[in-house]
Structure formats: structure tokens, C-alpha cells
Task: structure prediction
Amino acid sequence: MNWVPLSIVCVYIVLLFVITWITRRLSRGGMIAYLLAGRNLPFWVVASLLAGLAVGGASTIGVAEGAYNTGISAGWYNAAWAVAAILVGLIVARRYRRMEVATLPELFERHYSTSGRVIGVIGQLVLQIVIISVQYVAGGAILSSLLPDVFSFRQGMFITAVVFIGITLIGGFWAAGLTNIINVILIYVGVILGVIIAIRKIGGFGALVAKLPSEHPGFDLGAIGWPLIIAWFMVMVTMAFSVQSVVQITFAAKDSSSASKGFILGGLIILPIGFISAILGMAATILHPEIIATEALPRTVLSLSPVVAGLVLAGLWAADVSTASALLVGSATLVVGDLIKRFVAPDLEENEERKISRISVLVLSVFTYLLAYFVSGNILKTLLLGLSLTTGYTLVTLMTIFWPKVCRRAHAAWTLLTSMAALAAWLIFPQISTFFQRIGLIHPIYFCWIVSLATFFLIAVIDKRKIKAL
Result:
């Protein structure tokens, strides 16, 4: 019955491209029109873009993988994302929109230095390129696991690439936003249907609780450990305030009110999906006790009826495509705005900007696709580790907005560099991670924040050159 879920996925792909083609005229113009939707996104598109970006392979397959062993507590990953989005909506979304910038590195040069902008671009690109590469891997894993007779892993990666690259090339940020409305709906329909059918097969919710292995933590919300849960919240809040693909959504909003409302609504949409995916992972411990954790969600879906399996498959894959599209647009904006227009060709015409924007999307797509062949390991762990890089960005940005009197010209470059060095040191020197783990700080985000704060306040003392306030 592979033709049933395959047909559903094909209909979904066609629908995405129809929406993209119809709305392509909205992105006509230069870089702002193509990569920032002309700064004209209403709050409901802002919310769909944010939710689509947040709910990817890590939020579904990654959480289910964690829940297979740690129970419902794996769902805190998305709860952390949701809280982070709501905080951005309440605290800084309005301010970000009023800045009229395209990237955070642009803000750093305006108030700090050119070196701060260059370092900021390099760090953001490295982070986003790695995350985009993970999306290819997740997309290939989804298609090959759920339709093994149709797709190999490499073929699944290729089809995933064709879809989200095509959407981005044709329609830019508008297309990513409008197709994400379909993606988010499909994600929820698929995953909720999967949970309902899986629980019915077990014998009901009570049977799910009763049949879990005695050693399984089940519905213990603190099973993974509160230091790690707190670390997740720290990582996601830090990330949401400063990763280009996230803050770019505020830059592209119609106005400051749309930016704020969109992020709050997006956070509410993001909140439940992790716990729902966790229940699927827990159901897998009963339905498929012999498998490895990574197969928890795919194997559970395969045991459902073909129609339901097709909807779940399309929903999971939609989560991956929606995340990758927003990340790709964000990365292209960094290349065009912070490198090409700033240092190579500052006087481009609108049609030239659009062409270079599309070329940047294509080049980044090819590069990240090739990199994806070398990405492996735990999806959730990889993302949370990489996002620790954002501590320096968040600290400098928030200080610039809320406490500019203590900010100095050297802050951007040195705070970013030392936060990057802190993560590198954590990975290279096991003595550092061992020491922090002994005192209960088991994630590098703690070390990165300590180093970033120490650097910031040391520079505030040493450097006497004040920045211009916003």
C-alpha cells in the first residue's frame, strides 16, 4: 500500500508549488522584496513562518527519539522554543521591526565596528549552514524510513532539497511564509492522527500508562533532569533573540504590532507539538520494544493505516521543509546584505539584487546539500549544541537595546569571538565539560554565558569608546 502515502505526499508537494507560483509576484523587486517580503508580512504569516521554522525534524522525530527512553519530558524542547518566541514577542519584536535593518550583523556595524559585522556574519552562517544540512538529513531519513520501497536515504535527501530549494528560489520569503501555513496545519493533523491511532492500537490512554515498562519514566516531566531542562530553555531563549532566520521574521513584518503579535501567536502554536510527538515516542516503546530509539516515530507510523501513515508522513516531512526554507532565506540574506552589498557591489539595481539573491540561495543550497553527506548523530543534541554559539549575539543585541550606556565599540567583535571560543574549548578540552558536569551544569550554554558575560564586562572597563545609542 505504499502508493497511498506516496500519493498524499505528491499532492502535498504539488500544492506547495501551486501556492509558490501564485504568490511569486509578491517577491518582485530587490533584496528587501525577495528576502524580506517587502517588510509587509501580516501577523498570521509571521506566526506561520515562526512555527514552521521551529517545528522541524528535531521537534518531531528528535523528540520522539528522546521520549522512547525518557518519556514525556522530551517535549520540553518545544516548550522552551515556545517560551522563547513569546518572550521575543513581548520584549524585543517591536524594537527589532523599528530598526529597519536586514540583519543583526548590520546592526553591529552601525553601533560597533566593521569587524563586529564580519565576525557576526561568519558565526551566523556557520551555525545556519549546519542546521540546514541537518534538515536534508532529517528529510532523507523521513522518506526512506516511511517509504523504504520507494526512496533510499540519498533519494529522500534529494527530493527534500528539490522541494524547499524550489519554493525558496521561486517565491522568496513570501512563499516560505504562505506555504508554512499549509505545513503547520499538516504537521498537526498528521502527528495528532498518529497519536490517536497509536493509542487506540495499544488499548487506550490508560493502557498506554499501564503497559509502559516499569523502568520507563513515562509521564514524569522531570525525567531528563531539571539542569538539562533549564539548559534547553536557556539555549532556546538565547537563540530566539539573535539567530538571523528567527529575527529576520520580525524585520519582515508589516509593522511593529504585527511582529509582536505574530511571535506570541507563533509561540502558542509551537508549544504543544513536542509533547504530542513525545507521546508517539512513548507509544513506540509498547508497540515496538525491540527497536533503537531513532526509529521510534517512523516505525510507529509504519504500523498505522496507509491513509493515516500518509498524512503523518506528509506532516513530518512538512516540518522539515518548513524549517529549511526559512533557514535558507536567512542565510541568503546574510550573504547578500552583509557581504555582497556591503563589500563587493553596494550600488546594485533592484533586478540585480534579485538575481544575486537567487544565486546566493542556489549556491548555499548546493553547499549545504554536499555538507549534509557528512552530518550524522543525534539531531536534537546537534542542534542544541550548535545553538550555544548564539550567546554572544544575544548579549550584545540586548545590551545595545536596553543598556547602551555600558556598551563599547569593541564589544561586538570580542564578545562574539570569545563565545565561539568557549564552545570550541568545551568540545576540544573534556576537562571543562567534566568540571561543569560535576557541579550540575551539563550543557555548554552555561559555560558560553559565563565567558560572554565576563568578556562583556571586562571590555566595558577597558574600552572607553562609547557607542551611539539607538
In short: DSSP finds 22 helices and no strands in the chain. The chain has one domain: 3-388. The mean pLDDT is 86. The two ends are 60 Å apart (CA to CA).
